[in-house]
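#onboarding

Welcome to the new folks! Below is a worked example of what a typical request in this channel looks like: someone posts a single protein sequence, and someone else replies with the predicted structure as tokens. Don't worry about understanding the tokens yet, we'll cover that in week two.

Example request:
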Amino acid sequence: MKRGKRTSLLLIFLCMAQLATAQDTLRLSHKAFLAIVKQYHPLAFRYRLENDIAKAELLNAKGNFDPVIAGKDGSKTIDGIDYYRESNIGIEIPTWYGISLSGSYNNIDGQRLNNSDTRGGLYQFGVNIPLAKGLLFDQRRALLQQARAALQMTAAEQQLLTNELFRDAENAYWDWVRYYEIYTLQKQAVEINSNRLALIKKTFDYGERAAIDTTEALSQLRGYELEQEDAYLQYVKATMELSLFLWTADQQPYDLSRPLFPADNLLSSEAYESYPALIANLNTQNLNDHLSLIYYQQKENFLETERRLKWQSFLPKVDFTYNFFNKEGYRGEYFPMFQNNYQYGLKLEIPIFLRQARAGYQITKAKIGQNRMDVTMKQQELDVKISNYANEVQNYSAQISLADKNIENYRRLLQGEEAMYGNGESSLFLINSRQNKLIEAQEKIIELRFKFLKGFSELKYLAESF
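Example response:
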């Protein structure tokens, strides 16, 4: 409990340190965001509860092998006649191999006892043995084995779902950062063109520029203002999408009452340096160790247990019961077992057509076949995903390198065009054209970085699922 409190306090401190510090705004880092999702998101909490439920189901299955103690005390009196007074206490012990052991003490006395009742105290020790159906396998053992398989299935499934949650959260964060950087880029373009318009108006007032240049500069500014408004709208929408992953410690949605901005940018991720090692690690992994395949492996164990149980339905039900008795105060005679102080029974049941047995067995075999096909498809799906995302990340990394060089070329062209315009050798139209190309290239590299990080996120959580 103390450790949990310390962890929560550390997390809160981390988030407060990362979340902000301006008076009216909050800044959220990638690390703090993922910490909030892992600790407080309702789905992450729900997935942990699913594992607790599976553990409880296993405990419940083990309860079928618990010894049972029973006791009874009663009497019957009518018209002053004591028909009987009976006290009984006993224990039954189930075993793994379907055999049940029992023992009891019974004391009965009265004036109107049944002929089969033994007056006084009587000890009983007995055994029940299934001779066909239920000897090698029965429902109690099947339920326990299935509960163990279900626990492993649940653990694998919940970890997969948790990884998917973290992957979606990480993609939402970088998507949010992407739109923030595009908005910032458009905002800078508006500032640059506002300053350019002010400068051209001054030169026009001095008679150095034509009036058409002011119109050209104003039109360019209005275009960027429109782009800025659209970029801001997209950023606000991305912020709302991000808020779906932000929850408080008491499982309540985080209140975004103040503006929220990213503390990281698309270049701050460690993915650019670590992706080659991640791809190399994935290429050495055995696909059968992936959690999704472990889920199917445990599902086959579950179904195989059901198949073994269904097979028992083809066998006749032959149960042998033997009880040894000894009256209280008498010396027991233990041998021979079928000569004195005993009770036995032999019960036989044989279904005539075995239709339920055949149907149940066929259904289970079909489910096993379906599961094996699912395994084959999942192996192929994982292999394709790893290859596709590895190629995607490598390709986007190469594109980013080319796009970065292209941006530098466009920047130089813009600077040269501005210098020529200052010397009267160019036009404002060409400057605007150069600037538009530069902004398009900057937006392009932002998109490429986001796609790279999204592909890396897919690879990372594929690796974490091994």
